[in-house]
Amino acid sequence: MTKNILLVGVGGQGTILASKLLTLGLMEAGYDVKMNEIHGMSQRGGSVSSQIRYGDKVESPVIELGGADILVSFEKMEALRWLSYLKPDGRVVVNNYEINPMPVLSGKSDYSKDIIKEIESKVSTAIVDAANKAIELGNAKVMNVIMLGSIIKLMNLEEINWDKILEENVKAQFIDLNMKALKVGIDLV
């Protein structure tokens, strides 16, 4: 049976790195894995998405509307924007973090304060405070690895050797910090 994970965020949040680490871990565990990513205007704070499909045999890297088992959002407005990709019985993991898009920054639009409530009213939702947990660890940039930990826990993928994946794919001086961040993410869900 194929599982579908959609990761979304805003450029600069590390969504793509988290997707690559997850893909490598799933491959290490022996799954057939397909990944597809869209950068959009990611370098300018635009939307970023990665689709990961894994199982015994995966034919396509594309998740259709209503096909994601889990939607993982690194920024809460992105969760709302991509909600139509979630299966009716799917789960959302949303980082309680907001990045104002250009219409909000220019004053043409407001950032709704009720996004989390709106998402929770529609689907099973886990709220993760990855941003503050990353700051507590001493580096806001590990927010993505904290989010990765939450995915690992929700998908019951703890048996994969994530320490090895991090050791082989993160700069040496950041390995310990990322291992701590991964554990924090696993413990948050």
Note the main attributes of this structure.
Pyruvate-ferredoxin Oxidoreductase, domain 3; alpha/beta; globular
Q: What is the number of helices?
A: 8
Q: How does the overall form come out from the CA principal axes?
A: globular
Order of helices and strands: EHEEEHEHHEHHHH
Distance from first to last alpha carbon: 24 Å
Rg over alpha carbons: 16 Å
Low-confidence segments: none
Average pLDDT, rounded to a whole number, is 90
What is the total domain count?
A: 1
CATH architecture, please?
3-Layer(aba) Sandwich
What structural class do helix, strand and pairing data support?
A: alpha/beta
The portion of residues forming beta strands comes to 15-25%
Strands in their spatial order, largest beta sheet: 2-3-1-4-5-6
Helical percentage: 25-40%
Largest sheet: 6 strands, mixed
User: How many beta-strand elements?
Assistant: 6
Structure in words:
With 189 residues, this protein is of the alpha/beta class. It has a single domain, classed as Pyruvate-ferredoxin Oxidoreductase, domain 3 (3-Layer(aba) Sandwich), CATH 3.40.920. The chain is built from eight helices and six strands. It has a six-stranded mixed beta sheet, with helices on both faces. Helix 2 (76-82) links the parallel strand 4 (68-73) and strand 5 (86-95). Helix 6 crosses helix 8 (175-188) and helix 7 (162-169) packs antiparallel against helix 8.
